Queue: 4 jobs
Job 1
Amino acid sequence: MDERVEVTLNINGEEYQLEIGKRWTLLYVLRDVLNMTGTKYGCGTGDCGVCKVLIDGEPVNSCTYLATRAQGKEIITIEGLSKDGRLTPVQQAFVETGAIQCGFCTPGMVITTTALLRRNPNPTREEIIAGLDNNLCRCTGYVKIIEAIELAARRMRGEA
Amino acid sequence: MSELKSLGKPTRRVDALEKVLGTGRYTHDLKIPGMLVAKVLRSPVPHAEIVKLDVTPALKVPGVVAAITSEDFVDHGNWGFPVKDDYMLAYKKVRYVGDPIAAVAAETEEAAEAGLQAIVLELKELPAVFDVHEALKPDAPILHEELAKAQAEETTSGELEDAEFIEVHGKGNLSETLIVRQGDPLSKLSECDVVLDAAYSVAHQEHAYLETEAALAVPTADGGVTVFVGDQNPFITLSNLVMTLGMPGKVRVVQSPHTGGAFGGKSDMVYETAAQAAMLAIKSGRPVKLVTSREESMIASYKRDAMEMRYRLGATKDGRLRAAKIECWADSGAYASMTPFTSWRATIHAMGPYHYEDCHVDMMCVYTNNGYSGAFRGFGNTEVTAASEQAIDELAEMCGMDPMDFRLKNCVELGDTLPFGQKLEYSVGLKQCLERVRKISDWDRKRAEYSRQPAHQEIRRGIGVASFFHGLSLGAEGLDFAEHTIRLGEGNKFEILTGLSDFGQGSRTVFSLIASEVLGFPVERFQWLPCDTDVVQECGPTVASRSTILGGNATRLAAMRLLTQLYDAAAMMMGCMVPEVRQEGEVFYGPAGQRVTLDELIAYARANHIPLSAKARWEMPRIHWSFAKGRGVPYVAYHFGAQVAEVEVDRRTGVTKVLNIYAVHDVGKVVFPQGIRGQIIGGISQGLGYALMERVEFEKGYIQNPNFDTYLIPTAADMPVVTVEFVESELPFGPFGAKNVAEPSMVPTAPAILNAIYHATGRRIRHLPANLERVLLGYDLKDTVTTTVCQVGVCERAKCEL
């Protein structure tokens, strides 16, 4: 049995004091301990990106990130992006452009996009595509996701 | 048709909001108090006899609550359709690496894992077979001895009506043979001016839905079980559970609100997952959740079948197709699953949508120890079209014709007869698709320009086309119907009850739009519900791109009945006669200026016990296909389409970049514009993966690439610019003229890309995927890496074989 440790995690602006296994991933803690199921499990190897969360503003695959390592850092999950059920510009653009089909990649895509547009508010199409290199989608063929990101970027720059 | 109000207008997906917020629940996300975690022990070898299996030691592991084997199920959990050759947990034998053998439920994942380790399993390995031709040899190891014996007896008793059919029957690992018969193509081929004789193959493809298979089983107070799943037909899951658990009337199947993709893959494997979880729940008396890991899913779940094909096509020298003789071998893997049906669809579509005088198609479904094969988007058509549309290109070149001209010369039109005797009576927009795609892709200019590239040029462009057809819905496979109810629910919204699942394709939105169109209310007035076998009527499986046609028509009819109820109630409320009632959107008017809103009308109906709930069943026109004669009407009508691919190939590295895909599809009528564009582009991405990178690599039955680090699917960087257009040929009995779209979208992509690569390089790659090595060298190093490390000499052999 995995050795237990006490950790304090800052998730979506709230502090959680938890006793967890030393080798538990952040994904496991989010989904199975805290029941925050918006962050998904897809591969367990950091290849598909459906488990992305923001750690200190950077998109990270939580399936290969040990929860203990997240101590002292700011963790934002899909549940923490919108306030009072109001969509962020990124979420709004995903809904409007039809970038969502089965929706299983959506939380990860939204997390990645949020970080991308913070870093680069005016990305070229090539930069958007490069930004999605660790997020798989099997339904949409990505085109509408790219369109959603372009729309969100325009709106966040106040151009649309 | 009068002008449409809702259909074809910009609309958002009705279930997008909770998906983007992360609040939408998938099966993976379900959690209830007291829930146990289940894990499955799977075969580590491709073929073996189970000598000893004892799960009692697992029960002694702390935290383990239940453990099961095939002994726990009725008739050992024997199931399967159309061939009952599979087991919910292996019985007597295992037939592929990943075959489920036993399952445990425990308090924690760690305990469940320890439970699996404690199970006593003794296997006696049997000789295995991994090649369809080897599997048909007389001395090949047999996967299903009892079935083979029964089949041999059936053949010798001479019960089958057609001698031609019997000829290929009854060989050990042959699970099924499907045929198409018209005339005598071999004689005709000898008369043809131009004859092509070429072999093609396609590889196993993984669905790669991002949500792996899962089930949550909850024991009920009456000793039964409720199972939550994300599947493609809750009623098939239900009937399999009832049969193998042996508890009629006590099983309920509920679909989770959302399912993370399916593409044909959320059937058989999910039925097994559901049965394993359900049996563990019954044995433990506790809720049990079973979620497969990605590796487990990729190893254990069924694939698109690999197929080998020999095409002999003949034409006149001026490019008129005359004869086709096509032989195919489908690798069914360890179980039949849907392979007999995918293979049937493959035989129908193997010749493509063209005129022929004579043709024969023979399709052998062969058991091997390579995993197992089943349904996947395109359902056999994707496989054969990858070959046939290359063969058509090759033949066009032999005739000295432009591939577009060749297709236009031979393609079927309304009123024409398909090679197996079916007259095309409805909705044939193929010629328009070809003409349109020729124009929007700037075909003639690019084709001429790329043909003039100097021989020494290393980075080369090419442009290729593929056209195709795809039969609507199930066809002559079986009874084809759907029954929907639209009923008044909370918040004065109308709930659309359906047994058809929405795992991302958008059927919920399509049904809402159709109900909106008929009733004249905004889309927001309608509410979707997940399928629940205690609530909805059976609608048949959510497969074969049938939801829009079947469910759309059932919705349309139910909405019309509901409208009648509303008019009756409005007349009663306003004190007038029904024909005097006039409606504008959500307001009803009487002859003397009376005015009631829908909400007022609903309040009146509730107060006066007037039900506002209507159901309707819609059935496809019945047709007949003679499986023994290989003739008849396989599908009532067809989707048609053509795609053009434009590629850039670096001859020094083998890297192929798809620059553009132009897709024109005859969909009958566009219902949900955003959704249909998503279906087409999504299908193209799967077709692009199929063409260039996707192959489940079986090495003596072991999958070498069981996760996304080694099994590559297209990323955003792989996608070309996609231009999508539609031809609306209006199917008379489609809802508002609509046809199918989901499966067809990927069918022509791979051959269009392969034809473009040939145009760019002059090198024909007849074996998919056209990965770097095949594009660079003309063969794949991995083809020979079976037991030894690849050496130069071995690679030379591969070159000869290819």
Job 2
Amino acid sequence: MAIVELKNVVKNYGGHKGSKDSANAVENFNLLTEDGEFVVLVGPSGCGKSTTMRMIAGLENNTGGEIRISGRDVSAVPPKDRDIAMVFQSYALYPHMSVFENMAFSLRLKKTPNDEVKRRVNEAASILNIEHLLERKPRALSGGQRQRVALGRAIVRQPQVFLMDEPLSNLDAKLRVDMRAEIVKLHRKLGVTTFYVTHDQVEAMTMGQRIVVMLDGKIQQVDTPQNLYERPNNMFVAGFIGTPSMNFLRAKIASDRRALEGESFRFKAEGARGTALDTHTANEVWVGVRPEHLRYVEDSGHGAGLENMMRGTIEVVEPLGAVTMVQVQIDDARVTAQLDSHVQVTLGETITLACAGEKLHLFDADSEQALGLEQPVSEPLSAAV
Amino acid sequence: MTESRLTNTLLTLLTYAVAIVMFFPILWMFLTAFKTEQTAFDIVPHFLFTPTLDSFKLALAQGNGYWHYAFNSALSAVASTLIGLVLAVPAAYAMAFFPSKRTDFTLVWMVSTKFIPAVGVLIPVFMVYKSLGLLDNIWGLTMLFTAMNLPLIVWMVYSYFKDIPKDIIEAADIDGAGTLQTMVKVVLPLALPGLASTGLLALILAWNESFWSLTMTDHKAATLAVFIASFKSAEGLFWAKMSAASVLTVTPIIILGWFAQRQMVRGLTFGAVK
Amino acid sequence: MDSITTTQPVHSGKAAKAQRKVASAPTRRLMAPAVIFLFVWMIVPLVMTLYYSLQNYNLMMPTMRSFAGILNYDLLFSDPTFWAALGNTLLLVAACLIVTVGLGLALALLFNRTFIGRGAARTLAISPFFIMPVVTGLIWKNMMFHPVYGLISWALRALGLEPVDWLAHHPMMSIVIMISWEWTPFALLILLTGLQSLPEDQIEAVRLDGANKWQEFRHIVLPHLGQVLYVVVMLESIFFLTSFAEIYSTTGGGPGTATTNLPYYIYLGAFFQYDIGSSSAAAIGAVILANIFAIFLIRFVAGNLNAGSQR
């Protein structure tokens, strides 16, 4: 168990100027974990999340900054001496060794006494319910079982830090959901500081105590799942977190600096968002609305004239049972709305959608940064950003 | 299938015929080895005859005796293969798992030495060996076989190593294994089938090597290539004996080759076929 | 020991030292034995060959050794036998390549069908590859090619044709037949593996698209085999360029110079005329020829490396 600190960590592959390797793969990464925290690194592929994890593991050097585990700068320490364990996406089990030997390998290398090895492997196996598999070779195991063995191999070492690099992405959907819960349970039981890399924001939201959203080697936001959802820092985070993605509409700011208008919609900025617009110089702004915050409004004929409403033609209808997804053409944007399934809509119909004012998100038209973020009600966990 | 059954059958028969034609000289050599010299050297070929082992007795006694040459062939082939593997495995390991500009360059360089024909180095090797007393010396010959096969061995081992996922090496790294431990406990066991087929191919090539044997050895270190070349001027009189000697020379390696045919190919295709 | 060039500023001396350890295994030490071995046994002699080629040096007159400049090369280029040997080498390589690759491809297609006894038939067909070249020479020269007692002559007579003295009248063709007999199995084996790695769905797709057998072969099979063909051609070139034993044990380079290729020419010069200087010059010629072929292989290998690092 340990506190992990990353201070101005940089990774540069040292490519020639102008080549695609010349940019920093990871840039000024700062993070301070709590002891025993479960931190998820999430972002699209190539965002630097895996590289960051591999630097913590020592599989790659950080070309700048410091990585501290329990206060010790490990930047120059080889992987085996960092007291970490890693679970690989491909599981990376040793194909020629039995499950038992796979799990025992690191202990054997440390010349651990035989009965101690046995005790620890059996203990880990019983935690993961794989005692009956110990004599098998990895190729005789199912994907889910291999996953457990990979976890077991990490547990056996009793490391200070767990690193998990997309460990569930090779499993089928059902198993993935089960293993998700199981890993969380495991973490709660062992209480070991864990870094978890994934590109799947649902995985990130359900598992992480804190989530680091990355893009192009840079941290976009470090926050709790709830805060990421409710108070995204910028349009990328807003669009990345939540399914289906947040809708964005380009709006003109009216002269009263409150009304936000398009041809077929009209919103009103309230509270902190409204105040933010007073000092905002631009004439346009992005308005973000989550599909689940849109409501169907019985057509009264006034349509877009009212506040916080939009009006457009239905282009796609997707009944999912509990809810119905509709895509509506609003000006030049496609807006997705999640409607109750009892609402009867037909393709090509013109409908009106409404959204509560406090659910709106505003973003700067150029920088795409959030405007008028309200302070969260509860203090966020200490973020060193 | 759009092919008619007739075409299909004809193609199968054609395939059988081709296989038999390709194999026929070898079959004929085996048959002749069991003939008397009179039936072997006849204007009408004999397919049916009473087999005799007389020619084998004569062939075994040829020159310094078959076993002398066979021992030299076996020793030089096995030793050169083992030395080649011992040299190649660490090099291929570095190239496959720690690739850099330098390792890439070294690999390309090594493969390119395969393009230095033996005659290109024959004269200095001969002169130096002569002054060092390595002429007609089995270890001198073994080293030449090693040099001849090393580039191929490095490449094949490299291509087998490349197939081992890098994750596994990293897992071993995190588990606390050093370079040597990773190589011995993880990489070698995984690459064992590949190493075996590489070794078999090197063994076959070394066993069949004739150029260096014929130029660098005479009596003491002479291999089967020299043994069999002594029948060069047989001219009809000793066809059965020559065939018997040939059978003794090729049989071990044919059996090895049959055994290893599938495994050999993949490494040899330079990774072009998975 | 190992140094890696880091363009990034490093923070402290201690960190810098250890950071290297993390990044690079001792690759230099791992490669050194193999590199040194090849250097000593291939590169050093090669340089010596170059040196000898500039010397007046005949083992018959070992004391009369002197610097010759390009004299040996002058003599070499004015020696018609050298040019004949060069021509023979190229002819041999070209003919054997055409025969082995053409036949090998045809046979690979035949063997790629499913039929009873395929394994056994394939094993028989590839057996010649395992035969020692000297044995090949002896078997073919005597029991196959013999103008009176050879099997081919017998077969020709049985068909009412005139037997041929193969080695005397068609010496180069005989050599090509022997070498092709040995190496067609190699091409067959590797091309067959290539064919078997062709994904079934590609064939099915092109059949659904209405392609006939030839179009299927031309547009799907052949492109798929491209890389494999390349490998076959390159590896065979290496061996064909250095063909020796088949000639040594049959024609002895004759009749005249009809089957003298470069290796045999150099062998004769060094071991029968004891002329170290001009044989070395010829050897350099052989190396240059081989390297013209090598350029292509090296480009292939280097290309393969890049492909590997991008995966």
Job 3
Amino acid sequence: MAIWVDNDTRLVVQGITGTEGRFHALGCRDYGTNVVAGVTPGKGGESVEGIPVYDSMSEARQATSCNASMIFVPPPFAGDAIMEAAAAGVELVVCITEGIPVADMLKVRAFLEDHPTRLIGPNCPGIISPGMAKIGIMPGHIHQPGSVGVVSRSGTLTYEAVWQVTNLGLGQSTCIGIGGDPLPGTNFIDTLAAFAEDPATEGVILIGEIGGSAEEEAAAWVQENLDKPVVGFIAGRTAPPGRRMGHAGAIISGGKGTAQAKTEALTAAGITVAESPAEIGISMARALEK
Amino acid sequence: MKIHEFQAKEILRRYGVATPKGEVVEAAVEATDICREMGGRCVVKAQIHAGGRGKGGGVKLAGSPEEAESIAGAILGMQLVTPQTGPEGQTVRKVLIEEALDIAAELYLSVTLDRASGKPVLMASASGGMDIEEVAEKDPGAIIREAVDPQLGLLPFQARSVVKKLGLEGSTGRQAAKLIGSLVAAYLDTDASLVEINPLLVTGHGDVVALDAKMNFDDNALFRHPDIGEMRDIAEENPLELEAGKYDLNYIKLDGEIGCMVNGAGLAMATMDIIKLFGSEPANFLDVGGSASQEAVQNAFRILISDETVKAVLINIFGGIARTDRIARGVVAALDELPDVELPVVVRLEGTNVEQGRKILQDANFDFIVANDMADAAQKVVAAAKGGV
């Protein structure tokens, strides 16, 4: 078992004819994901290493019954690509694109209210259920099937945690990067709720960072709803206020969104917070032994 | 992106927001005539990209054209230190000369994104002129919040409700409601991330005027607003950060002594944090991008070591899609092409083929200090910076 992505995933890649889209479409296929289609407007009828390309999402959906999409469309057009996927009825949309304007995401969110589609990202590494399928840009080979669910706002910091977990022999059920933008499609609570229902997930690693209040909200939810052990880490303890630390959403503004406040909220909810990023994996192992 | 107060007022005036009459000057002598035209009294305001200018002595009232010139002369060129600039302050290159208005009341207005609800929010308070965070802490009830539907904008009834809660009536109330609507329209039209009027002034005659104005913009949307992009003032930015920006590197200058180069923003922050945990301070935030290409590493390294406060460098790379041995070759090649680097450089590589990667570093001409994991790397770089290896 895993959440959201598994052996039934039938993936379409939007922007498959671009360099990144092509590279990662093939990377997902090499990992074992069933990549059934690509979409680039105006390039319908072509193929990418045997993957058929369609002009639109509705054509791709009709021809291949794809149920998940991965988006590599440039930022000015990525919001439209998300909405096109939702309109075509695709259940899961993973948007890798970084740099989508906030105003575009406000439109996307309003649009998705009328559609059952789940959006992961934007500005994220994607989602992987080790041994089954991956939709994203993460290196598949550092993962290993197992019992730990990972949810994170980061990319490489997630790989760091995943690698620690793999080296401890625990492995992962599903790993999700929800992305570094201020308005993510899927948030911590959505993911934690799915992990709570997933029998394969025995413990959860939650990696947050400065900015916003998603970690505080997640902490309150965990305290009320989750029986599985949770280990947290918050990046950005040394980040100066008012500066955007790489991710559009990683900013302390008006004294709000500090690593200290988030750490306190997690700790108060009974979550073990690793003080050092080198101790995320071992903290999870200890929590699972209890 | 940030802009100056006078630029924000310029944009807001296009939306019908009333502001004091004013002109920007870069030489003190120009202040004399402007002040005379305003009737001999004016306010001289330093233009820098930081708040709290009044507290640092960057905003002063002049009672005569001569005084205006001498105040402008004192402020222009000064290193203005405010709670937001850091102890070194910011050089003042421009001052805004504005008419002095009589003050009956000072209010607060802003529009920003509320991340929790996923909607823009209008915030208003009758306690203007103060730090809004202080107001929020002492008396959260004093802040009026009104959610904005981004497709519809602020509806007239919402504006009227805010005005009533602020206690404004009659002509003043009507002017304020119109101004609030204009503010939200400006926020939505320009892809702003913040519009703030603090204070919003009610004059003795009951008129409503934006005495101060601040606007920040969504960098990702600037491609839609070339006119706003042109308002960027690079003199306000750190030169190293500017240089890094040319190579699409995410670099932020900090106060510590350990230069760090990391792939990915989250891991970069975590690396800064672990340096602190081991007793030192990071000199910068630097994300070279997920794939850490040779070219990115080279440019990043050059920028990193041009910061004279750096005593040692930590390169922390998690090999993702690109395997560790390939990244190691890139790091070695990058340093080979740079002139003599005398600083100690600790490298921590992790990921697949890590043994080969470490061997490539150990066999290189450059004397890298190779670390096994993040904790080991932090310990080694802190020791190296303090003089012992």
Job 4
Amino acid sequence: MRILLNGTEHNLNASQLVEALEALGYKDAVVATALNGRFVPKALRPSTPLADGDHVEVLAAMQGG
Amino acid sequence: MDFYGVALSSRLLLGTARYPSPKILEASIRASRVEVVTVSLRREGGEQRAGQAFWSFISAMGVRVLPNTAGCHSVKEAVTTAHMARELFGTNWIKLEVIGEADTLQPDVFGLVEAARILAADGFEIFPYTTEDLVVAERLIDVGCRVLMPWGAPIGSARGLNNLFGLKAMRAHFPDVPLVIDAGLGVPSHAAAAMELGYDAVLLNTAVAEAGDPVRMAEAFALAIEAGRMAYAASPMEPRDMAAPSTPVVGKAQLA
């Protein structure tokens, strides 16, 4: 399946959001996620299905003003 | 000073961006004795995992974080970012920015009120980055904001208090709402002026981070804010147009 994660295309074998995150090394990372512009809480990642062409955003803490 | 039931003794809130190094950021936070720092959310990627390192750094500082929605230009972006920030940082506080214009980074006040309405209904405690417009400020209060953060001048411009009259009017109009000058300050005298007007606090970033010596500048701002607040509490005299001799005239010798 082809997904766009943080703007980069990945070909993954992942049916749920949590699997995509694990496959790309975010398993233990402190991150917040959005799917196609909608916030997905951590607790819902295992039950959030992915579809071909989905846009995933994975955000973390960063310096800010 | 009280923000959403949280009592704070420092009236300086400090941004964490643009410092020469994490070490200098840490020293600046310590030197200014701030209790609240602003943080942001950005894409986490690559092998570096910069966000994880920053999160560990901030957690170890023992300060309260105020996440922002910097860079958001729409209500949807700002609301989604706020939700992501709440989960990531574990706080209902959100510095709500909805940017309306690229050159001035002026807030889109229409989008701001709408985003604030949505977020307040969802339990967020909102620190809206706004202008000194009183009508907008009333709307923000109406939808649930309990703190207002008018700009001093455009973000990063170092211009100081651009509309003194407007900011004075805002203070007079909202005597009981915590008001924070957010953005546009350049030197400690700007911060002292804000405090002398009766503003409750000042939020800074670039003025400290881009100073030649950020740590010393952070401390200078902290001292200026303390001095300005003390001056406000001491009720400054009103300016007048004509001179008034400070030395008594009574008892002056006739020597002419």
